[in-house]
Known about the structure:
With 232 residues, the protein is of the alpha/beta class. It contains nine helices and eleven strands. 43% of the residues lie in helices and 20% in strands. The strands form three sheets. Strands 2-1-3-4-5 form a five-stranded parallel beta sheet, with helices on both faces. A four-stranded antiparallel beta sheet has the order 6-7-8-9, with helices on one face. A two-stranded antiparallel sheet has the order 10-11. Helix 4 runs parallel beside helix 9 and helix 7 crosses helix 9 (195-209). It is globular. The N and C termini lie far apart (45 Å).
Amino acid sequence: MSNKILIVEDDLSISEMVENYLTKEGFSVETAFDGEQGINKFLKEEFDLIILDLMMPKLDGMETLKIIREKSSVPILIMSAKDTDVDKAIGLGFGADDYITKPFSMIEISARIKAAIRRATQYSSSDKKQESQIIKIGDLNIDLENFLVNKGGEIIQLTSKEFDILKLFVKNPNRVFTKAQIYNLIWQEEYYGDENVINVHMRRLREKIEADPSKPQHIKTLWGIGYKLEVK
Length: 232
């Protein structure tokens, strides 16, 4: 069965271009032309990934992103003409998994989509069977099989990348990872010194799993080196 993608983009020419290319690549594609349409389709159907523009009528991309993130950890790829580091940080901070700026090549967007879906589904089949366990660290119960984190009896909603990062630390307690190592292992791409991406995801993860993110008890920072999950 082909992966199902929702494109939320108000520019008809861009939407059709991406839809046609992805359909030829074997994806099943649905489209929406503003944030409200996007939310309605998201609530009615299941998608493997959502491509989301930022500048849209009725409900902009950031508001749409926040609403989706309150209900789901489906991979979200922002597609926007805004290309500053601040815009990217805001988008990632609201829960996007990746950010691609216009104009873009269809080969690039296809590669990013496939990578995001691959990361989100890597816990299925044989991998799940090997990792059918719940790991307890402090007030956290981390279910590697079912892709769930429970904090003090409450389910914590993590994005696929946030869970990937937490899983990396959980499986390697007390081991120090540099930012370059984290990026290479999680994004599976070469690291070119873009600390902003790592910083945003680490901050988001800490805000969800730490009692006091400014004084983390689980994921510690080793200044000038990297991060580690401290387990006594």
